[in-house]
């Protein structure tokens, strides 16, 4: 009998402690999660804007400069333009998924986006480096 009373008492204490823990978790952590969602949306919007500005600068300043110095680079510049289109598609899709709260889809898009971005940056560096070397020779 004493054991049952002790078990009942322990059950009440653990239930009370679990309730307190639940309130800690739902109270401040819910607010943090809400802010993370807002921050993620803001970060996605800022990233899309920065990417758009960067791509526009390359297309209006860098690529024409390379073509002027080296008209033979037209094929490489055209490929970079095509990659810019793909990067814009990825950024639009990612921003949409973030706004919709589609974490799984957003994660998948961001993985593909990151791979495409790394490949593009590598190719762009090679084109720019090759054209700079050629113009200096």
Properties at a glance:
about 140 residues, mainly alpha, about 0% strand, elongated, disordered N terminus
Roughly how many Å is the radius of gyration? 27 Å
| Overall body shape | elongated
Report the mean per-residue pLDDT as an integer: 75
- What's the oligomerization state? single chain
Separation, N- and C-terminal Cα atoms:
96 Å
What portion of residues is helical?
over 70%
Quickly give the structural class: mainly alpha
Summarize the structure.
The protein is built from four helices and no strands. With 137 residues, it is mostly helical.
Folded structure, characterized:
The structure is a single chain. The chain is mostly helical. The protein is built from four helices and no strands. 10% of the residues are buried. The N terminus is likely disordered.
Task: Record the SSE blueprint.
Blueprint: H1 2-26, H2 28-69, H3 74-100, H4 103-136
């Amino acid at each position: 009998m004493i054991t049952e009373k002790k078990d009942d008492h322990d059950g009440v204490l653990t239930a009370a402690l679990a309730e307190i823990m639940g309130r800690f978790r739902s109270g401040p952590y819910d607010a943090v999660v809400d802010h993370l969602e807002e921050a993620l949306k803001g970060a996605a919007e800022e990233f899309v804007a920065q990417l758009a500005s960067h791509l526009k600068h390359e297309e209006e300043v860098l690529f024409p400069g390379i073509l002027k110095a080296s008209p033979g680079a037209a094929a490489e510049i055209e490929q970079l333009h095509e990659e810019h289109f793909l990067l814009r598609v990825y950024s639009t899709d990612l921003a949409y998924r973030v706004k919709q709260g589609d974490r799984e889809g957003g994660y998948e898009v961001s993985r593909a986006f990151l791979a495409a971005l790394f490949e593009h940056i590598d190719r762009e560096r090679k084109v720019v480096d090759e054209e700079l070397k050629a113009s200096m020779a």
